[in-house]
Amino acid sequence: MASDAKQRPVYVISVAAELVDMHPQTLRLYERKGLIRPGRSSGKTRLYSERDIEHLREIRRLTQELGVNLAGVEEVMRLQHELDDMQGEFEAEIERIEDELRSQAQPRALPAPGERLDPRDRPVYVISIAAELVDMHPQTLRLYERKQLIRPGRSSGKTRLYSERDIEHLREIRRLTQELGVNLAGVEEIMRLRHELDGARSHLETNVRRIQEDITQRMTSWRTLPAGGAGGDVADDPDPDEDPDPDRD
Fold first, then answer.
1. Nearest CA-CA partner of 83 in 165, 201, 170, 192
2. Contact 72, 186 (CB under 8 A)
């Protein structure tokens, strides 16, 4: 898979540092902070992948272009690593399901249709209640919406309605700004990744369900095939009461 190639550790620290225009000591610092996770050779030499190079360039963009502090960068990269891990889990799950299909194993029970919507995504709170729950002014919630940090739903009458997930996101924004001192540019990057992570998780779950449903349909079709298989006509069984050779005495 293409993602496997991106994860393959190939660059020693001197080459990686040159590729991203940083000092090797800076790369070591970022590793200690958990911002990047280089691999190791059998001799314990750091080896950086294409994905690590992308992450290092993103760190440089956040710090140099957007002025995000290190606490904000740590949040961004933690979410980015979560996205990377989820992609790996998704690919592993797809491979497992394909193996299951090949071996004609019994698929797992599918969730009931009513269970598919995460209740945390159901828009229920009007803006005054949402603002009270997160100890913010309603105007602050409107500002965050304009900045696309949160994405409340709308009622049929166009009233803003906030979900439990929106409340979680608002509390996270407050933590980032008040406790960690992350500037608004950093918060925008972090919340963009949070939305992307939520969307990726939902996409993963939807795809896994779709593949499981496909397996179920195929397994059902296989079980209902005639004994001769799906390809050709099935020969009629001879009548046990008839002589198969009428010319024989």
1. 201
2. yes
